[in-house]
Design goal:
The protein has 148 residues and is an alpha+beta fold. It has helices spanning 3-21, 85-106, and strands at residues 31-33, 46-60, 63-78, 111-121, 128-143. The protein has two helices and five strands. Strand 4 and strand 5 (128-143) form a beta hairpin.
C-alpha cells in the first residue's frame, strides 16, 4: 500500500530539489520532512515534503482509484514588524514553487496538481515565523487484488 506513496514522495523531492537548485534562497539547503518540529529560527528558511494521505475507491471490479495528498511546507523567519513582508515573501515562494513542482511531478507520468495553499503567521515573538503549506493531489489507478 505504501510503495506508490513512497514513489510519489521521491518524485516530489526530486521536483522540489530541482526548483531549489535554481533559486539562490534555497540553493545548498536540504529538503526536510514536513513533520519536523521545533526548528530554530536560525535554521530557516526550510522546505519540507510529506505524503500524509492515501485513499482508495473502487473504479471497477478489478481496479481501484488511488488518491494521494502531498504537501510542501515552507517556513521562514521575519525579524521585521507586523507589516505584510512575510506574507508577501511566502506568496512569492508559492509562485516560484507551484508551477515547476507540478511540471516536475507530471513529467514522471503522474496526474498531479495543486489543490490548495495556506499561509499561517505566528503573532508571537521575534522573529515571527511564517508557514506556507502547498497541498497537492495525485491520482492513479491500480489493479485490485481479488480473493481467490
Amino acid at each position: 500500500m505504501s510503495a506508490e506513496r513512497k514513489a510519489l514522495r521521491e518524485d516530489l523531492r526530486v521536483a522540489v530539489a530541482a526548483v531549489m537548485a535554481g533559486n539562490p534562497t534555497w540553493a545548498g539547503k536540504s529538503i526536510i520532512s514536513a513533520w519536523t518540529t521545533n526548528l530554530s529560527p536560525d535554521a530557516l528558511p526550510v522546505i519540507g515534503v510529506a505524503t500524509p494521505t492515501e485513499e482508495r475507491d473502487a473504479a471497477a471490479q478489478d481496479t481501484d482509484f488511488q488518491t494521494f495528498v502531498a504537501v510542501v511546507v515552507v517556513k521562514r523567519a521575519h525579524k521585521g514588524g507586523d507589516g505584510t513582508e512575510l506574507e508577501d515573501t511566502l506568496d512569492d515562494d508559492a509562485e516560484a514553487l507551484v508551477g515547476p513542482i507540478e511540471a516536475g511531478v507530471q513529467a514522471q507520468g503522474r496526474d498531479f496538481a495543486l489543490r490548495s495553499s495556506a499561509i499561517e503567521i505566528s503573532g508571537e515573538g521575534s522573529p515571527r515565523i511564517g508557514t506556507l503549506t502547498l497541498t497537492f493531489g495525485a491520482t492513479t489507478t491500480r489493479a485490485r487484488i481479488l480473493p481467490l
